Amino acid sequence: MGISYGDWQKLNDKLDSILILVSRIESVLAVLTMKQEQIMADLTALTAEVARNTEVDTSAIALLTGLAAQIEALKTDPAALQALADTMRGSSDALAAAVLANTPAAPV
């Protein structure tokens, strides 16, 4: 007693259906993998940006703390205080010029 041709055909049809479903699953997994890779790239970029911003914040805090200490130390010496203000103005002008020179034009 063997398997009839009709039973083989039904089994073959079911296997074909399974193969089609597996192929669809593979396609969906490929898309999900690509999306995951993009998300990971975006997350890496975001992590780097957060680190950079943290460094900038830390630098700004150090700058302000140092500036406050310099002003405190020079508060009784008007000439030295004016020299510090002049130095800061020069640095500020140079920074403003660098920002302006390196800022892309707004899209039209």
How many H/I helices? 2
SSE pattern: HH
Count of extended strands: 0
| Main sheet attributes: strand count, strand direction, barrel closure | none
Between the first and last Cα atoms, what is the distance in angstroms?
81 Å
Shape: rod-shaped
Mean pLDDT: 90
The structural domain count equals 1
Q: What share of residues are in beta strands?
A: under 5%
- Uncertain runs are none
Structural class: mainly alpha
As a whole number of angstroms, the C-alpha radius of gyration is 34 Å
The level of helicity is over 70%
Written description of the protein model:
- It is built from two helices and no strands.
- The protein starts with a helix and ends in a 7-residue tail after the last helix.
- It has 108 residues and is mainly α.
- The chain has one domain (7-101).
- The model has no long low-confidence stretch (mean pLDDT 90).
Task: Summarize this structure as a short list of keywords or feature phrases.
2 helices; 108 residues; 87% helix; mainly alpha
Question: Helices and strands in order, then pairings?
Answer:
Elements: H1 5-74, H2 78-101
Question: In brief, what are we looking at here?
Answer:
This protein is an all-alpha fold and 108 residues long.
